Amino acid sequence: MSALADSRLLRYVMRRRNNSLTVEHDTTVTTLQKDSAQSAPRLKHRHKTAASKGKDNDLGTDANTGMRTGCRRFRRSRLLYRIKKLAVWLLAVYICIPFVVKLCPAIQAKLVFLNFVRLPYFIDLKKPQDQGLNHTCNFYLKPEETITIGAWHTVPASLWKEARGKDQTWYEGTLASGYPIILYFHGNAGTRGGDHRVQLYKVLSSQGYHVVAFDYRGWGDSEGTPSERGMTTDAIYTYNWLKTRSGKSSVYIWGHSLGTGVATNVVRHLCEKETPPGALILESPFTNIREEAKSHPFSLIYRYLPGFDWFFLDPITESGIIFPNDENVQHITCPLMILHAEDDAVIPFHLGRKLYDIVASSQSSRKMQFIPFHKDLGYRHKYIYKSPQLPQILREFLDDPNSHQ
């Protein structure tokens, strides 16, 4: 009986244990299913959130790129607008200038003379020694009652020590000492104290020449208003002033650039009076002012414009500015030498050559010479004084026994 009871008890315990394990298993499975069911929406939400963020980032990148592209297009359009505006403004100025020049001929005269351009600035013309000319005297002449012009007289370098502290009377007295004299007519712009002019005075002085240079009316510290007639009057007066003090000393005339126009006016006048100078030297000359104006670099943008002569050249002529070198040289009887650099951009070389050809075709028996300077030398418009051959060229042409002393 007891054995049977024990057996029944054992089966009961085992049954209860199995039921407990089954319940625990079912509970675990149920819990896992619940957790799985609950986590699935969360994971799905996370995936959706991540996808949403990715889309937002893509949209932000596209927006930034679009903004940058828009800014570039805006800046480009503004730049194009400004360029167009500038182009319209320049075109308007380009069109207006010819009419302004035609209606106001005085503007063209100012551009020919450029006497308002004073270089170097702040120079005291009363003190030529400040420019390294310690053997130079500053003085003034009166070609007309209401006009006073400033001038410099540089004595030959051999008189340098003797010239220290001397006054104008002493300087005037040396003009008759037998040394040859060069009367120098400078070009437009600047004054008698321009650097390239001062350097030429020094070269000529070192070769035994007196050099007298002056500023035309309206230039430097000279009074009056520029004009071709006035410049020629000043030059003739200065030449006559020199001749009354030079004794037996030779007087030569040297013109540079616009000064060649003054020089041929003066020398033609003297030759017609049968009182020619010892010789005429033209540095960088032109044929006449119309051809020079048409060949000048400033005229390049208008040179081929229809009516160029009417707009720009006729006002010059109407202002009384002609400087007819090509006509004047045919009436000159004294020896003539032309110096011209091939790389002259202001007065082209071909104008100097053309002027010489006009002289040569006149079949005159006078002494004449054309000296070209190769473009590789770089003398351009105003640096011929740098040529080491210049002193020898002058000695051979002028053949003055009293020079180079």
Largest sheet: 8 strands, mixed
The whole-angstrom Rg is: 47 Å
Order of helices and strands: HHEEHEHEHEHEHHHEHEH
Mean pLDDT: 87
Largest beta sheet: what is the strand line-up?
1-2-4-3-5-6-7-8
Q: Please count the helical segments.
A: 11
Helical content stands at: 40-55%
Shape annotation: elongated
Number of strands: 8
Q: Percent of residues in beta strands?
A: 5-15%
pLDDT < 50 stretches:
none
The end-to-end distance, rounded to whole angstroms, is 170 Å
Structure classification: alpha/beta
Task: Explain what you see.
With 405 residues, this protein is of the alpha/beta class. Helix content is 51%, strand content 12%. It is built from eleven helices and eight strands. The protein has helices spanning 2-103, 105-113, 168-174, 195-206, 228-243, 258-272, 289-295, 308-318, 325-328, 349-361, 390-398, and strands at residues 136-144, 147-154, 181-185, 210-214, 251-256, 280-283, 336-341, 368-373. The chain has an eight-stranded mixed β-sheet, with helices on both faces. It is elongated and about 170 Å long. The mean pLDDT is 87.
